[in-house]
DNA sequence: TAGCGTCAGAATTTCGAAATAATTCATATT
DNA sequence: AATATGAATTATTTCGAAATTCTGACGCTA
């Protein structure tokens, strides 16, 4: 068999949590996983101060693995940290969500475009599998939010993984974390499933039919809709753009702004 | 003044090293900066094992700040780490460079496209300033490689920063690290400056003229050329695709492959 | 000779305490 | 009353040593 450039791309696989950090049963990694789940799920809300004592007690670890976990989360953009002032969960703002939505759309359009053009049979298999899992997860009662989110993410990343670009996948992973955090913070679950599953099914069909234009159009709609929904929910919840901003909610353009937002 | 979504985007600024980690005079950050410079410059070549003792002695720090610095570098994709096996400088491969080139092009095209369309006067000013610095740096003898690279990076990020998208800038930053590392590992300096400066000047003009098509075309050429150059230099240096690959260099398609490579 | 288990040596990971920096709050001053 | 000052407190960062895990070599067995 002939060696091609494509073959030499290491298959880091989708959903790899931290770039080039193969997990192991180290306390640091366990704490990282739990903390990450707590931040992305919103159980640790924006602005939460993560004190040394608090984190050590909550996750039952010492100072070293704690600090390592926090450092990794900060590199992922889920915590912020300054000089000698410890770590806090990043604040959320309308402006950042808009940015996240735009960038996510750009990245996923790129990935899907390449996936539809060059995706292998292996890829199609994984897409179909993950879709099946997703359908199954929807029927079962939503006992655990984390579990459903995991399945949802797996489906999306099965789709994207056809691009065969480790770096693009990595960036999609990072931005998806952000998307998920905002959504779980502000958008309640009840409203989602019906429209969402329809959207997923349509995406699946378009992708398997290798219909590039349709795939891109559906993706644009999907991400724009999701982003606008969360933006609207944030506004409704009274979250201003910047935490320190003076503008009251009444002054914000509101829905008009959201709909006119160029994603 | 009316509040707009754009206004609420926090200005993290270009070239921010680690997402949401505001620097301070902490030992950990100093070690991180030095280690990073050593990896990106190639002074620590791919595959170098970073032992506890070695790093502590080399940078004159204790275990905790060392571990934190290494953890951050791994999150940046400059080191790899597995379970209980410590840290090593990531290996380099043809396949990964091809991926990096592709992704960098996608990201920078996006950023420049938005910059040309929406860049402010403030942005134009910083672009012009950084270009001037770059010209000046070229005349002075290249005493320090790190310093010239810093100026070069600053110019490119001044251009990109017009996109006003913190997340896109962050990803551009991460992928540029990778590009720089590969280039400094395999492409010698003597060949670059003349063609490069011409390219920079053309880019500057196109951008200030708000000529979108020309800007994108020049960027495509610039990145494709740079990537192919480094790919060719890697092949010439005898670096196979995968470190563990069996294929000898003679079997690789070589230049034909490089030129046909779809970036 | 090849394969397997065991054991010392080395390296990484983790803990607990010391050092250093930030914060608070009471007190003094303008 | 408002602001500045400075100990006392709290929190973060760093060090040094203990605990755990990996590595490689040696000897044993089939």
Annotate the secondary structure layout.
2 copies of one chain form a homodimer.
Chain A: H1 5-8, E1 21-22, H2 27-41, E2 49-50, H3 52-59, H4 63-75, E3 79-82, E4 87-89, H5 94-118, H6 121-139, H7 145-160, H8 166-186, H9 193-208, H10 212-237, H11 255-260
Antiparallel strand pairs in A: 2-4, 3-4
Helix pairs in contact in A: 2-4, 5-8, 5-10, 6-7, 6-9, 7-8, 8-10, 9-10
The structure holds a DNA duplex (30 and 30 nucleotides).
Could you walk me through the main structural features you see in this protein, from its secondary elements to its overall organization?
The structure is a homodimer of 263-residue chains. The model of chain A is unreliable at 1-16 (pLDDT under 50). With 263 residues, chain A is mainly α. The longest helix of chain A has 26 residues, at 212-237. In chain A, helix 5 packs across helix 8 (166-186) and helix 5 (94-118) runs antiparallel to helix 10 (212-237). The first copy, chain A, has helices at 5-8, 27-41, 52-59, 63-75, 94-118, 121-139, 145-160, 166-186, 193-208, 212-237, 255-260; strands spanning 21-22, 49-50, 79-82, 87-89. In chain A, a hairpin with a 4-residue loop joins strand 3 (79-82) and strand 4 (87-89). Helices cover 64% and strands 4% of the residues of chain A. Chain A is globular and about 55 Å long. The first copy, chain A, has eleven helices and four strands. In chain A, strands 2-4-3 form a three-stranded antiparallel sheet. The structure holds a DNA duplex (30 and 30 nucleotides).
